[in-house]
Amino acid sequence: MIIPLLKGLRLTLSRFFSRPITIQYPEEKRTPPPRWRGMHYFRADDAGNTTCVACGLCVAVCPSRCISLEIGEREDGQRYPRHYEIDELRCIFCGYCQEACPVNAIKLGSGYEYVKYDRSDFILTTEKLLAMYEGKE
Ligand code: SF4
Ligand code: SF4
């Protein structure tokens, strides 16, 4: 009878004197785990352009149908995304787009603060996706 009581008391005391689990958010921020899937970004080449070759695999694999792509073709015959857009409000952050991309162009970042005043801010165009590349990798 007394043993379970002492065990419970020991657990209570160990928690009482250990470091608090809570943090003072937003002043303090947690580093998400390495496999965290947050807001998307586009990887950029040396010239600052997206490395996307407009193959359409991410569009085909996306279960939420939240990626739209308009394919363009350069003079040398190379394809590029004339218009690329992800609706982050419909995204379920499954990561399939990242896995399917043959050139590692579309990535899911470490951001986890999804608070904006305007719904249109969640529509990520090529420019916004490239801007979110800064400081990564
Ligand atoms: S993470 Fe999943 S749902 Fe979101 S855009 Fe990529 S494939 Fe679509
Ligand atoms: S982001 Fe990757 S998978 Fe999607 S169209 Fe561009 S190259 Fe293809």
Structural notes for this entry:
The protein has 137 residues and is an alpha+beta fold. The protein has a single domain (27-131), classed as 2-Layer Sandwich (Alpha-Beta Plaits). Helix content is 23%, strand content 18%. It contains 4 helices and 5 strands; from the N terminus they run αβαββαββα. The strands form 2 sheets. Strands 2-3-5 form a 3-stranded antiparallel sheet. The model has no long low-confidence stretch (mean pLDDT 92). It binds iron/sulfur cluster (2 copies). The site of one iron/sulfur cluster has 13 residues, from helix 2.
How helical, in percent, are the residues? 10-25%
Find the structural class using helix and strand composition: alpha+beta
Give the tally of β-strands: 5
Task: Determine the CATH topology.
Answer: Alpha-Beta Plaits
Please give the largest β-sheet.
3 strands, antiparallel
Q: How much β-strand is present in the residues?
A: 15-25%
Low-confidence stretches: none
**Which ligands, by name, code or SMILES, are bound?**
iron/sulfur cluster
Give me the strand/helix succession: HEHEEHEEH
Average pLDDT rating: 92
